[in-house]
Design the sequence.
């Protein structure tokens, strides 16, 4: 290989490394403040979504479980485990756990968890099979095409003001 060829190959390799680092594929699933496993809680122990996400059935927002909810079980159960000790630290400091939100909708979209829960729409319809996930990630793309298709399938309103305010 000529010297020019070696330089070009080195530049291409360097560009590939920089592109990989900039894309940060390892961060496509956010690192949460606690290593909480839906696979264990919702899967193995079969804890229903609404037990922890108590607001989903009565509010537009599902809500993130409070430290109180976690400590309801973990004051006793597995209290010696490292991740449970972290929950205890939040509890002792009277601080909420700063979970990183996975799903966000634009401000002009009005989505009500309550409406969907009361109609019997399973959480996994929009969130995927979280009971199989150690770390929750976006399992489906929640865009207008998906929502309109679901509304049409369920014979729900597709009037623009149903979802857009």
Sequence:
């Amino acid at each position: 290989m000529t010297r020019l060829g070696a330089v070009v190959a080195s530049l291409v390799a360097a560009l590939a490394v920089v592109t990989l680092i900039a894309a940060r594929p390892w961060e496509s699933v956010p690192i949460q403040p606690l290593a909480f496993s839906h696979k264990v809680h919702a899967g193995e122990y079969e804890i229903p979504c609404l037990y922890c996400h108590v607001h989903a059935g009565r509010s537009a927002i599902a809500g993130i479980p409070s430290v109180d909810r976690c400590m309801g079980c973990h004051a006793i159960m597995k209290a010696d485990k490292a991740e449970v000790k972290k929950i205890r630290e939040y509890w002792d400091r009277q601080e909420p756990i700063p979970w990183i939100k996975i799903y966000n909708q634009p401000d002009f979209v009005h989505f009500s968890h309550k409406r969907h829960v009361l109609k019997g729409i399973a959480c996994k319809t929009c969130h995927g099979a979280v009971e199989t996930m150690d770390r929750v990630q976006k399992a489906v793309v929640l865009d207008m095409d998906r929502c309109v298709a679901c509304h049409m399938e369920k014979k729900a309103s597709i009037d623009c003001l149903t979802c857009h305010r």
About this structure: The longest helix spans residues 3-23.
